[in-house]
Amino acid sequence: MIQTFFHLLSAAIVVLYLVIFILSTDVRKREEPSGVVRVLVPTYNEADNIGSCLESLTSMEGKGIEHTIHVIDDNSPDGTADVVRSSFPGAGLIQRERRTSKADALNSAVKDLEGDTFAVVDADCVVSGDWLGGIIEPLSEDEHGVSSGSILVRNRRESIWARVQSCELAFLCHQLMRPVERVGMLYSINGNNFAFTRECWERVGGFDPSKLTEDNDFAVKTRLAGLQIGFARAKVFTRVPSGLGELLRQRRRWYLGWYQNLSSASLFAGALFILLFFYAFVFFVAAFSIYTVAMAAIYYLELLVTYRKAYGSIDPLSPLLFIVLSPFLSTAIILTALPSALRGKDQLDFKKHW
User: Fold this and answer.
1) What is the DSSP letter of 32?
2) Are residues 141 and 285 in the same domain?
3) Do 94 and 52 fall within a single domain?
4) Is residue 325 located within the same domain as residue 186?
5) Which residues pair with 230 in a beta bridge?
6) Is 212 exposed, middle or buried, given 0-12, 13-18 or 19+ CB atoms closer than 10 A?
């Protein structure tokens, strides 16, 4: 009886993955919105990274899209502004008098700059050659207020945990977000790769500096305002935490940021779903048979194809590490975040926004 239960559960998970895989194929064509696009690069203490970010932005294929680049320096003491002035005089530099938050930095830039379309990329990222055209594509549809693209890993061979994240982000961005968007359930964005319209920003009241994850708060408010979020064919590459401790701290902040926008019931329901989703491999093992081995192989091959679609190359090890380690990583993240969540939203720490 127990083995039959696990067989059915693992079969349902594989079917879910296959449906997601089919729906993730992009078949739509869109027109690009007109007007000048303001590319915003919010930054704090990124002197070591801002150069590679701006190099990628200045060398990308604009495809005739009129745009300007603006670095918003949140009073960095490490000389970030000096790097921009000396090496990239063509980029606009907005220097803030005191450090506040990414949300406040973005709000001030949108207020001061003219234009109806804004694209955002973080200073520790590099963009793909066709990024600008891709990230603004969904905004050509009237009902779309925000678009979000893929986040992929630059240092994906640096450690075991970097490999796990490389496959995780490939799965989330190149297999999961498209079908979620198609069924009208996309309520989140990638905060280091998104675009939005001024109309949307004004309608939702801008970015909220009190939120740990101001990007997802902005996404939720966008949907509540009756606007849609589009998934864009636009890649950026970022460095991810290579150590487990740093990774857990980052994900704990993300998880608590999501909690700010959820009820307690939704928080626990979401945690249960995440654990069941990532414990698929455990279900395969618990229901061990030739049948389950075949399904596990399908699961692995599916991730391998998705990885190649995202990065353009095959890495047999990363999908395997993702299958084996992601359940334990998800469990650790939830266990480290729940004590703070259980104390209540008014007890969360908002000091670290960068």
Assistant:
1) P
2) no
3) yes
4) no
5) 147
6) buried
Please state, in angstroms and rounded to a whole number, the distance separating the CA atoms of residues 181 and 163.
Answer: 26
pTM: 0.81
Report pLDDT digits (tens) over 18-73. Answer: 665 565 555 445 555 567 999 999 999 999 999 999 999 999 876 678 999 999 99
Q: Which tokens go with 14? A: 């594989």
| CA 275 to the chain's CA centroid | 20
Where do the DSSP E strands lie in 101-154? 117-121, 125-127, 144-153
Number of independent structural domains in the chain: 2
Residue 323: name the closest of 290, 283, 294 by CA: 283
Q: Residue 113 sits in a domain of what CATH number? A: 3.90.550.10
What pLDDT, in 10s, does the model give residues 88-141?
A: 988 999 999 888 889 999 999 999 999 999 999 999 999 999 999 999 999 988
Q: Are 200 and 257 part of one and the same domain?
A: no
Looking at the domain assignment, is residue 120 inside a domain? yes
> Can you tell me which residue has the tokens 């469990």?
331
Q: Residue 235, SS3?
A: strand
Q: The tokens 């998970």 sit on which residue?
A: 13
Residue 312 vs residues 145, 154, 170, 209: alpha-carbon distances, Å: 30, 13, 11, 37
Query: Cα dist. 295→172, 176, 237, 241, 287 in Å?
Result: 20, 19, 31, 31, 11
- Write out the two tokens for 282: 């455990």
Burial (CB count within 10 angstroms: exposed 0-12, middle 13-18, buried 19+), residue 100: middle
Domain containing residue 260: 2-23+249-342
Same domain assignment for residues 122 and 185: yes
Residues 155 and 197 reside in one and the same domain: yes
92 and 194 housed in the same domain:
yes
Give the residue carrying structure tokens 């030739």: 290
- Which residues sit opposite 70 in a β-bridge? 40, 92
